[in-house]
Each structure stands twice: as structure tokens, then as C-alpha cells.
Amino acid sequence: MKPISLDQPWGRGFNATHTHAFADDKAPLTTNFLPRGLGRSYGDVCVNDGATLLHTFRRNRLLAFDDTHGVLTCEAGASLADIAQVMLPRGWFLPVVPGTRFITVGGAIANDVHGKNHHISGTFGRFVKSCLLYRSDWRSAETVASSDAMFPSVIGGLGLSGLINEATLQLKAVPGPGIEQETKLFGGDGSIDDYLALDAQSSAWEYTVGWIDTLDRGLRGVFFRGKHTDGPDQWLAPNAAHLTMPMDAPEWVLGRASAKAFNAAYYRAQSLRSAKRETIPLWQFFFPLDAVNAWNRAYGKRGFIQYQFVVPTAAARETVPRILTHLREANVASYLAVIKTFGDLASPGVLSFPMPGTTVALDIPAPKLHDLRALDRADAMVADVGGRVYPAKDARMSAGMFQRFFPQWRALEATRDPAISSSFWRRVTASEDTSE
Ligand SMILES: Cc1cc2nc3c(=O)[nH]c(=O)nc-3n(C[C@H](O)[C@H](O)[C@H](O)COP(=O)(O)OP(=O)(O)OC[C@H]3O[C@@H](n4cnc5c(N)ncnc54)[C@H](O)[C@@H]3O)c2cc1C
Known about the structure:
CATH topology of one domain: Alpha-Beta Plaits
Number of strands: 20
Distance between the termini: 45 Å
Helix content: 10-25%
CATH class of one domain: Alpha Beta
Strand order of the largest sheet: 15-11-13-12-18-19-17-20
Number of helices: 12
Shape: globular
Bound molecules: flavin-adenine dinucleotide
């Protein structure tokens, strides 16, 4: 599998200039470089403007598999799609998947990604048994096991602690390629109480997630819960994207009015399925957006950003509606917003994003100055209650805010490979936050 763009992140919106190197060339790299997976991070965490990107997508072999215990060793450029395609017919699946299967194992580890089962399984990093890590001189390949002191800097290490060359992962046994899904409508009263109640009643379901209409005053939404089940054989093969976004959408279609209409139409369509139980292919449940290749072009040439924040459990009920109301009143157009409750399983990475609480992710097309100001104010609301914003999705938070969200960032800086850097890291560490 190849990245859609070698230079841009998923949100586009950047014109970075890179030189390109490939991990399979094994040439020593001693100047400023950054390991890169499939570039599915929305912002500059996978960008190294003016320097080198070290691409890993050609190192994608599955190396060994213990069929009895479900333990897989693979090269870090293998995608989750590659792994699932081979492992599902054998009854094994990835323990944690994000909303796209087109990411690499290296990318999943470096951002310690989460999925719809965080309340039961925690993050991807919890299933990494060990990594083979190369520091920049290429001589010191080091196996880093989950009990090693270096492990937290590799998991959620944003690629800064070295090139993950191979990883050994614990997969999970599944009964088949289906998901039993139940859909329920929630909200309408401007609070997230209904959502929280549904979520609390769903702890026995392995996967839970909500879609929320942030442009609707009532904050109406649709709650999805699912569990693995069997399904027909044809569901085993991933339905490779059969549609491709042929061009960049023109900017005039991307305003608040279109976003409102889009959200209303989606809500209407989902109401028809409400309270229904159905069995659907696993791909459709986890990765609906993967059905359209290069769907990020739907946001036009100027791209989009994703704003994902989490606030602690005690603050969620009050703070989530406050932030969403603030963004709506500031006229920030959001097309797709997802709400999810994180559980209390500790994440193993030094900069892992999840914490026990509620997270919301909003896609915002081509943010203008007033959108950015509104997001800065939202950052402050998140910080005030002890929450944080997700680096994997970010392209804009200030150095001061980042350091408030992740006061432990210096621990990652201390173990950073001196030859590795990213546009994100330079941006968020450019000045020290002295406000404490
Ligand atoms: C549609 C969509 C849905 C998403 N849903 C979710 C979600 O539900 N949950 C979630 O957590 N995330 C989600 N994401 C974000 C995505 O999972 C992460 O950004 C992921 O890290 C991207 O992996 P990648 O292989 O594309 O890596 P890249 O984006 O190329 O790189 C990500 C980071 O990993 C580092 N890296 C990559 N490979 C290596 C390596 N071999 N060694 C060391 N460092 C490396 C890079 O330096 C960079 O810091 C979503 C993204 C999209 C596009």
C-alpha cells in the first residue's frame, strides 16, 4: 500500500517541501529526518518541512505468526489492512483499530491510536509486546519490550525516539467477519446526557461510538454499538475502495449552510435504522470512510483540520456541550463529529492522548482566522478542566497549550533521537511554557 501523498498530511492544507528516503534502502541517516507511515495523520506530526521523510511503507512483510496464541511479528510498514486481510480468514483481528485501516503498524504505535473499544481494551500500544527500534546511526538496533524503560517513549513517541522497524503484536480471536450493530438516536435537548446514559448502558458492548450534529442546537446524534459475530465468507475480503474522489471540491460548497444540510441529511438517513439490530461486514462498521479513495479531496484544495479533544469524566457533562455551543456560536462549520467515551485503562505511551473521559473529534474545512481564534478559545476550555488535544490530528495548537496538555513532553524530548524531528515537534516546543 502506498501513501496518497508523499508530502502532505491527510488534512492537506500544507505545502511542505521534503527530501525522501526509504527505510528499505538502509542508508545511514544522520541529519534531520522523520519516519513516516501512510501519512494518515491529519496535521504536521507526519511532516518534516525542509528536511527528510523516511518512508516505511515498502517495509510491509508479515514475518512470523503463532497461530495458537495469535502473536504476529511484522515489519512496521505493514498496514492494518494488509494484516486484517491475511489474519481474518484465520479467525484473528487487530485488537484496536482507528477509523481507517490504511495506516501502518509504525504509525499506530507512534500515535498510540485508539478505537471504538477503548473502554474495554485501551490503546493500540497495550498490545505491542516488543519493537525493533533503530536509532539514527542504524547500527544500534534494539529490541524494546513492554517492560523496558524505553517502551513509553516508543509508544506514542510521535516517531521521535527512533525508527520502529518491526513489531510483535498480540492479535485477538474473533468469531468471523461480521459485526452485530445496534443504532439508537440520542439528544435534542442541548446536552449530552442522553449520550452518556446510552454509553453507560452499553458497557457490555465491545464497541461504542456516537455521531453528533454539532450544528444542531439540540446536539442530536446517533449512537452505534457493536460486537463481533460471524458473517458470510464474502465479507472476509476488504471491499477495496471502489470509488475515488475525482477532484478537489470547490470551496463554495464547504460553508456552514452545506455542513448543516449534510448533517441534517445524515441524521434523517440514520433515523430510519434507529433501534435496529443488524449484522454488517466488519469493514463497514469500522471503516466507512475508506470506501472512497482520497476522500480528503472532498474538502477542497485548502484542505481541512480535525479538532479532537478529550475532557476528564467529571467535567464531560458540562464542558462538552459548552465547547460545542461555543464553536457553533462562533460559526465554525463542522461536517463530521464523533463522540466517544474513553475508559480508565492506562495508556503505555509517554504522550498517549486518551484519558478517562469523553472525546469529540470535529472535521473543519479550510479554517479561517475566526475559526482558528474560536479553536484557541476551545483549547483554553479544554485545558481549564485538565483535558488535552490530540497531536495526531493537530496542525494549529500553540506551544503553550501543548505544554499545558502534555506537561510530560520533556520526558520524550530527553529520549528523542537527536537526528529526528518533525514540523509538529519544532512548533510545539519552540518556546517554553512558563505559566505554571
Ligand atoms: C479517516 C481517519 C480516521 C482516523 N481515526 C482515528 C481513530 O479513530 N483513532 C485514532 O487514534 N486515530 C485515528 N486516525 C489517525 C491515525 O490513526 C493516526 O494518525 C496514525 O498514526 C496514522 O498512521 P500512519 O501509518 O498513516 O502514520 P503517519 O501519519 O505517516 O505518521 C504518524 C506518526 O507516526 C510516526 N511513524 C510512522 N511510522 C513510524 C515508524 N516505523 N517508526 C517510528 N515512527 C513512525 C511518524 O513519525 C508520525 O509521528 C484517523 C485517521 C484517518 C485519516
